[in-house]
Amino acid sequence: MKKTITLKVNGETFNLDVEDRRTLAEVIREDLHLLGTHMICEKGECGACTVIMDGLAINSCLVLAADANGKEIETIEGLAQGFELHPIQKNFVEKGAVQCGMCTSGMIMTAKAFLQKKPHPDEEEVRHAIAGNFCRCTGYVRIVDAVLSSASELKES
Ligand code: FES
Ligand code: FES
To answer: What was the pLDDT predicted at 157?
Structure first.
């Protein structure tokens, strides 16, 4: 069965007709063509599909699009201002925290929601915050470093 929903994604409002069995991740990728939200496990285990919904980092593969009706969603595409990367994106690049890139957008969205709530974290808190986001490439050290550097930069700005 189809339902009409309204999503505000990266500041833009979309009215969409969606099958009630489809996930938010599917609608973001297939209907809105925002392909930066990755789908790997599709069962809430890897964190690659993380987006921010009403301020909270969520696994968009576990949320039905119909249940996101009326919500405000941020995806990785909403972070850069034109050609200017968001400080978290910039730090991921500069610290070498991006390798294959499959985890990167989810990791950055988790980091963004986390730093909004906890602007001055220590290393252990960062490791705890990203525990639901798997990375098979980096060994996490560079990612943690990038999040800590982002916290310092965001604090200064
Ligand atoms: S694709 Fe959603 S948690 Fe893995
Ligand atoms: S950079 Fe490859 S999975 Fe994280």
So the answer is: 73
- Tens digit of pLDDT for each residue in 59-87? 999 999 999 999 999 999 999 999 999 99
Q: Which two tokens stand for residue 124?
A: 């252990």
d(CA 29, CA 38): 8
CATH code at 87-156: 1.10.150.120
Is 111 touching ligand 2 by the criterion CB < 6 Å? no
List, for residues 27-64, the tens digit of each pLDDT value. 999 999 999 999 999 999 999 999 999 999 999 999 99
pTM (whole model) above 0.85: yes
Q: What one-letter code names the amino acid at 84?
A: E
| 54 C-alpha to ligand 1 centroid (Å) | 19
Q: Show the ligand 1 pocket: residues with CB < 6 angstroms.
A: 39-42, 44-49, 59, 61
Q: How far is the CA of 37 from the centre of ligand 2 (A)?
A: 14
2-78 is classed CATH 3.10.20.30: yes
105 CA from centroid of ligand 1 (Å): 12
Sketch the domain layout of the chain as residue ranges. Answer: 2-78, 87-156
Selection from 99, 94, 82 nearest residue 137 by Cα: 99
> Looking at residue 156, what is its pLDDT?
77
